[in-house]
Amino acid sequence: MLPSELFDALDKACPDVTHAGKSIDAVTGERQDGMRGPDGSGQKAWNADRTVMRKILLTGLDDHIEFGKKFERYEFSDDNGITAYFVDGTSVLGKMLVGADGVRSSVRRQLVPEQVMLDTEVRAVFGKTPIGDGSVVPEGIDQGITVISSKPPPHPEVKLFCDGMRFDRSRTNPGVNNVDLPEDYIFWVLLFQSSSVAISAQELLSDKFGGEKSLQLAEELTKTWRESNRAVIVHADPSAVATLAFEMARPDLEGRIGTSTSTTDCRVTLLGDAAHPMPPVGALGANAAFEDAAQLAELLAVAGQSQCQLDEEKLRGFEKDVRDRARRALGQVAGPGRGLLGMKPIEELKPSTLWT
């Protein structure tokens, strides 16, 4: 999907993946090795910095992208086109609209308003902590995936997932494709249940609950931990910290990407989190989104070469594949991933009201 020179740049910009991992008791500091990161026996895995990857993916697309737009609605036109309208009063006419606008997709809300999102009741604080000389964090915490956890009564278990991002600057030139590699850092995610905090979901997810408040929340949730085990939080960069809630689509996706709607209009479709939101377990959602995008891009390229629109049969085939990929990934989230997240069984989850 990427031109070879951009793929090579991305490949060289990604730190090596360490497959071994460890778990640490947050209070006692006891360690247990033997955890596994991404499976190294199959396809190659990449540990990508999102900012770097985003810049590389946007290379050469300046004339085709406009930032600062907020989608409002779409309308079909009489000439077999589709018009996207934005809240600033502007609009764009095209042949096809692809809703790739994430979990809170406005395109999905109009296309399949009956699709139900489930609230997993799992919340997370994401952050980055500079590695520096390595003196402020436990030894080896940046080598493979590390899970630090405890079960402080009376609250459910709180888990901290860490992974080191050490960049090999000898493999790429600074500034290649206008991308400068960041300083080495530890990426971390603190998982907790909504019942663990006396803060409403609406407040947690509001724009006012920024990096400083998110970091304070993470520090509060880990205040009983051994200091060395919470150092990655204490020394985090507040500007790189945020709080999120995990929603997911029902695993039994049907019909028009998650509904029973049978009508397919070839002028609009969905992919990625817009079609099948899921918690970030093992990068399942990201990988499914890339597969969605690659398949649709190939179909559109073929249609473009023949100067015709994507026909209904091909779009139905694409959406079926999207559903099949999503079912497999959502099944892993609801199965093995449930214990990792501390999530309730699917049948106990309620429809999400986080964004209403």
Automatic annotation (TrEMBL):
Keywords tagged on the record: FAD, Flavoprotein, Monooxygenase, Oxidoreductase
Domain FAD-binding: 245-306
Cofactor(s) named in the record: FAD
Claim: Transferase is one of the keywords in the record: no
GO MF annotations in UniProt: FAD binding; monooxygenase activity
Stretch list, region Disordered: 26-45
Gene3D superfamilies per record: FAD/NAD(P)-binding domain
Top-level division of the source organism's lineage: Eukaryota
Residue stretches in coiled coil: none
InterPro entries documented for this protein: FAD-bd, FAD/NAD-bd_sf
Metal-binding is among the record's keywords: no
Official protein name in the record: FAD-binding domain-containing protein
Species the sequence originates in: Vermiconidia calcicola
